[in-house]
Amino acid sequence: MSKTRLHIISILVGISLVLPCAGITPETPEELKTSEELETWFYDDSDIDTESINEGELVFISPENPESILHSKNQITVTADSMKTGWVGLRQCYANLVPVKESQITYQYRHMRELKIVSISHIEKAWIEGESVQMHNVQNNAELCITAQVRIFYQNPDRSFTLVSGPYHLKFLDGYYPLHVSFTVTYPGDRLRFTGIEPKHPLDMQPMLAPGKLSIDTFFEGRLIIKINFQAIE
Length: 234
Fold this sequence. Notes:
By secondary structure, the chain is mostly beta strands. It has three helices and 16 strands. It has one domain (3-30, 62-232): Sandwich (Immunoglobulin-like), CATH 2.60.40.
């Protein structure tokens, strides 16, 4: 299997793409008709260095070709009402999707509502089915953006708050592959004070802070769960 083909499969059939995704599943390649052909195509890894495959350990990276890596762009809006209900607004966009005829994104949030497609680019057709986005004829340079409400904002016993986002990961079989995640959170600066973020990030991934807003941009392999902590302002 070529490295390009492995990258496509890891994006399209991986157990989980990013925070809420079960995966994007393509049709079987039309040129492969028999089970023997499919098996040979699927398991041929003769040109892949298996020693370099990440098995789940979180590793921050500086890729040589960042523009080729799947990019999950996330915007989360925390409001004063979120402090009571735990519900926040989510806008999530995918860039660098791999061209494929039929695919889907399936979400696995425990609490999710109002899932909507707000924009597509270089995708012939996309629509909602339950808690999934179905796509037809994904082309080069395709992008897709959705919005939804998700309940991921928690009050702790000490009356502090934590926003839990993740795990972000791109997995194929037993390996984890590079993923680009950018993440922006806006929150009521007169009600909440940012107190910290987990995990501890390298110097080139420190959160950028502004009143009522923080941003992160990172490339990594493995599994990343982002926990952002706040204290209520009395």
